[in-house]
Amino acid sequence: MNVIDRPLSRTLRDIASLINSGGDLGTTLLHLVKAGCYNTVWSMGGVMSVDEGSGDAVVLARHDPNRLGTLYRDRWTLATSPSLIALTTNEPVIIRDAQVASEFPGYQEEAIERGYHTVVVLPLGCRDMEGRAMVLSVKSRSIVEPSDADLAFLETIAHLGAIAVDRSNRLQAERRAAERLQNVLAAHSALMQKVLSDGSVASAAALVETFMHHPTVVVDLTANLVVTGRSPKPETFDDERWREEVNAGVNRQLLRIAREVAGNTRSEHAKLYLNVCGQHLNLPAMVEPLRVDERMVGALVVFSRGADFGDLDHLLLESAKSALSVQMMRSHLRFQTESKTASELFAEIVSGDWRNPDDLVARARRLDIDMAAPARLIAIGLPRQAGMDDGALEELHRSIARLAAQQGQTATVANLDGIILCRVPGGARDSENTAKLLVRKIIDETQWLLGCKPIVVIGRTCSGLQEHRQIWQECARMIRLGIRFNRTGLLASQDFGPFPLLLSAADTDEVRAFLNVTIGAVSRHDAEHGTGYIPTLAAYLESGCRSQACADAMGLHVTTLRYRLGRIQELFGIEIDTPERRFALELALRLNETLSQDALM
């Protein structure tokens, strides 16, 4: 039978106009289906895409003039649909009477329900925006026998439709590209505005996260700071849990990875092996080094394989890298300025050289420091064997400032001659608990950062210039004692005897002069002649100047002991006949012992 009721040329002209009258893909597909039913016996039709991943054929457009609110199926199992056969053979599939065709049970059920018989399914030769192949189907309410000319007519319609679909896809892709370009330009503008407004690295990183399609992590090596956004593995860790795990220890793994790419000039496309809460994650990522004037300031980690990155994605990535690099350098320079100002202020406070105390208080107030309010001073030093340069000390300085800020403290951190001061505001009880918690974090951070345990002292609560100066001197003295006697960790005054404390408080030259006058000659004689007069004097005083007890302790005959004591008096004129002389001699011996231990360190 003849399917076409009008002249072919006019029909094709009208069909081409109908197909090309659509703009978006949905409208184009709907016009394509209508074209297949235009002036023909085909009363209804549809366009389906084949989703081989899910095993379904999905209806994208449907034309049925008699549809009166009936709910039709929009998804078919490929096993019950002729769509896959048409695509596989690239030939039309004809079902003469779908109501009795048991090989396609899905069509049979719908054919009976909707009242159609003959069905023709043919490949369109194009794909939708998701890359899925499509087929065109037309249906007749009566049984028809399509001729070769009829099938050729349908194939022509399909070919015209494929051209229109491809054009629609290109237009849509161009619109999407234009929109993405606008988004990239807007993102670049917003990032630059954020940097120019002197925001923080964290706020800039949050802005980058909103523009990127993939989860990101920003590593600021100038502050040992890691800012994370969405979870790279949401099926395992949601965003909140991911941020908690990063703060709990994954940040150090990311800092290490960022430092490893410091020598690279190009991004690293690799897999990151992270240990998160006992699970070993293997995450594809791009690690982009961030530099300013060839100086490594951080890294941007994008959890993506990079294969799905187009030109606009790389343009956005470069904008993000540029903005983050500048923001990190600005933050670093701002910290250096603030640190220098705070260090100069506290150096003047602890020196006691106050030409105008009110001016010092006013300068502190401009730094948001209330010198009259109670606070605790924490002193942090490094052991002698650490051998750290100024760069390492500055890195530790920034890390301590970051740790204090993370605890919500308005702490002030300053560098005073190689000892870091951290002033934590608060009353006696509150500041002590806060200081101890902060100290634990500082010790842990220093061990990871510099590979050595620091020396830390928590001072008493203080307020006012004079108390700040006095308590800082006590803290600094304890730090020097820790360095001298190779002690690390949190120190207290009871960790040392009275003589080391006395020695640290006194002027070293004056102490040595006192020792020289008191026992200097005896000490030199022992060194030159191998005698043991200094140990003999120490044992005699320790035994309470009792000859027999001293001789027994030293394993000597009492006569031998008395001979030695006589020789000491004869050679050096040392007398121990009064309490004052005995005290001076015992003090000299203890100080000498302390200095000798110090020399061995």
UniProtKB/TrEMBL annotation:
InterPro entries: CdaR-like_regulators, CdaR_GGDEF, GAF, GAF-like_dom_sf, PucR_C-HTH_dom, PucR_C-HTH_sf. Residues 353-480 form the CdaR GGDEF-like domain. It comes from the Bacteria. It comes from Labrys neptuniae. This is Helix-turn-helix domain-containing protein. Residues 534-591 form the PucR C-terminal helix-turn-helix domain. Transmembrane segments: none annotated. Belongs to the CdaR family. Residues 40-166 form the GAF domain.
